[in-house]
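Hello,

Our lab assistant flagged a job as stuck in the queue for most of the afternoon. It eventually completed. Since we weren't sure the result was trustworthy after the delay, we are filing this so someone can double-check. Below is the sequence as submitted and the structure that was eventually returned. Let us know if re-running is recommended.
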Amino acid sequence: MKFTPEIRKAIYAAVAGLVPLLVIAGIVTGEQSQQILSSVAAALAFFASVMAVKNTESNNPEGEFVDPEYEDVTEGVQPPHIPGV
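-- returned structure --
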């Protein structure tokens, strides 16, 4: 499963909405709710980091990210002359 920004946002919203209900119902305490929210945020941040590393690796031997859709249209083009500069 890919934890895209939209999916992470939905998970945050679901947990942020569910945890207060659990507190109101007396199932968890206020302190426990903070721990739950912190744990979910940490887990999603971890998965986001793993995805970032996985999605930025390339076959480039220098390790530099190369956007496959990027086309350098400035190669061989002289910069414009700005009078007074």
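-- support follow-up --
The delay was a queue issue, not a problem with the job. The result is valid. The helical segments are 5-24, 30-56. The mean pLDDT is 78.
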